[in-house]
Amino acid sequence: MDEVERAIFDGRRYLGLTSFQTLSLTPREFTIEMMAQVEATYDEYERQATYAMWARQAANAKRLKSTDLFKRPRHGEKTEKEVEDIKAKQAETMAWLSQFEEFSGKE
């Protein structure tokens, strides 16, 4: 496959785009969409891991309240993820992605 055919294939496989939609994107836009899909996949993995931990905790606890598993943050209350943590995670992800030829030198 040449580069364009590969982009069309990846657009369909990972993003669910038609060939027309894929070809209407600039190479930079396509790269951003692919990077966003990678992050969305990781987000889903984190969610599934959290669900598994909750299920295990619920199965092993004697007296469990819903707030023992999850407590919704209130408005103005600090959450676990601060801006610095998110920026550090993004930097790690970009470093990881840079090992691949299609993402090297992109930011």
Q: What would you note in describing this structure?
A:
The chain is mostly helical. It has a domain of 57 residues. It is elongated and about 60 Å long. The two termini are 26 Å apart. 2% of the residues are buried.
Question: What's the count of strands?
Answer: 0
Structural class of the helix and strand makeup?
mainly alpha
DSSP strand (E) fraction? Answer: under 5%
Unreliable stretches (pLDDT < 50, length at least 5) are: none
How many distinct helices? 5
Share in helix: 55-70%
Give the biggest sheet. Answer: none
Using only C-alpha atoms, the radius of gyration works out to 19 Å
Rounded mean pLDDT score: 84
Distance between the termini: 26 Å
List keywords for this structure.
67% helix, mainly alpha, 107 residues
